[in-house]
Design a protein that fits this description.
phosphoric diester hydrolase activity, GP_PDE_dom, 12 helices, 10 strands, eight-stranded mixed beta sheet, single chain, TIM Barrel
Length: 261
Amino acid sequence: MGKPFIPENTLQSYQHAYKLGAKWVDMDLSITSDGVVVIYHDFTVKNIPVWNMTFNQFKSKVKFPTVFEAVLNEADQHINFAVEIKYPSIDEIKSENLGSAPNLKDFVKKVIDIVKNKKGGNREVTFNSFEPDALVYIKKIAPHFNIFFDTEGLPNKFTDPRRNSLEEAIQFCLENDLQGIVTDTETITSNALQHTMTVHSQGLGLMLYFYRSFSKKTDYVEEITKFDCVGIDAIVVEDIPMALKILKNITSCTYNDNYTE
């Protein structure tokens, strides 16, 4: 028999990740036109922006619709949440033909209110987003939360210069008293040690998404080992058991060309 199917972005998937050993789970939030905050990765469902449909319409189009507030209150209280505010840039509105975006402040405030009013427990919640202004507003209305800036660090990709380099991301975090940066492995894989030291030297944390699929297990082992050895603060992975096994088996680190080229 194969592994049981557990749909992503559901209460069951987060509970399962915790049982496998994950300390945190990450989730992307969007909001429907009638103000329901849902966990959903993309901007659109069948080419319709999430914020342009009611929750009932969203439910009819998504196989496993998940309401953020329900998961927040029902998940094991030992599971910590890394919450991404999913909000399109001007460039993404144009390139993906989204037409418009939801009201940013209303969306963020709704999320913050849900978290503040959550049922008991000691769950930690952090916030991150690719949209800088979302993070600025979170800092304004809920400064006690840890807040991280997502960046791809790709030059000239976005109209907003804050999104176009690791250096800009660092500056943005420092100017707004944020706690750190979230990026993917490809952004810093070249000169990984130097990039990590640069971020840490400014008193910021650095987390990595492992977006890439690896053709060989040895490649996966090498990548996780490399980033653990250069001092990355956290990694976001899909294969939790394998990642934990790799981390457990790291006994020493050598900074050679494989780690810094």
